[in-house]
Amino acid sequence: MTRKDKKSLKSDLIILLVHLLKYKFQSKRITNSWLFTIVEHHKRINKNLKKSPSLKNYLIEIFDQVYKLARQEASTQTKLPVDIFPTQCPFTLENILNPDYLPE
Fold first, then answer.
1. What is the spatial distance between Cα 51 and Cα 5, in angstroms, rounded to a whole number?
2. Residue 55 contacts residue 1 (beta carbons within 8 Å)
């Protein structure tokens, strides 16, 4: 796995988590763009993991750190207080890797 692969996976994970948080906590504002972004980044993550299965260990390793970044970014984008978003990720890794997953 290359540095570029790791950077790409981290970036895709942040974007996916931000949009899943927005979807879950601003359900009245869901747009097609959000849905497209969720689907696209699910695909990218799964494609990278299929290409390089060892990236899954890296994904597990960075998950909590990346969630903290995504939580901040979701707060910035939605203009909601960061405390609205749980300190622990409400999505499991299984959710993240499931291309059909959308939060309730």
1. 10
2. yes
- Look at residues 41, 35, 48 and name the one whose alpha carbon lies nearest to residue 13: 41
Question: Could you tell me how far CA 61 lies from the centroid of its own chain?
Answer: 14
Tokens coding 48? 């990278």
Q: Nearest CA to 49 among 95, 99, 5?
A: 5
Question: What is the pTM assigned to this prediction?
Answer: 0.94
Task: Cite the DSSP H helix spans in the chain.
Answer: 3-25, 32-51, 55-78, 93-97
**Cβ neighbours for 48, distance < 8 A, ≥ 6 positions apart:** 5, 8, 9, 12, 55
Contact of 91 with 42, CB cutoff 8 Å: no
Which among 24, 35, 1 is positioned nearest to 74, based on CA atoms? 24
Domain-wise residue ranges, the chain: 3-97
**79 torsion bin: left (phi>0), alpha (psi -120 to 50), beta (else):** left
User: What confidence tens digit (pLDDT) does each residue in 43-79 have?
Assistant: 999 999 999 999 999 999 999 999 999 999 999 999 9
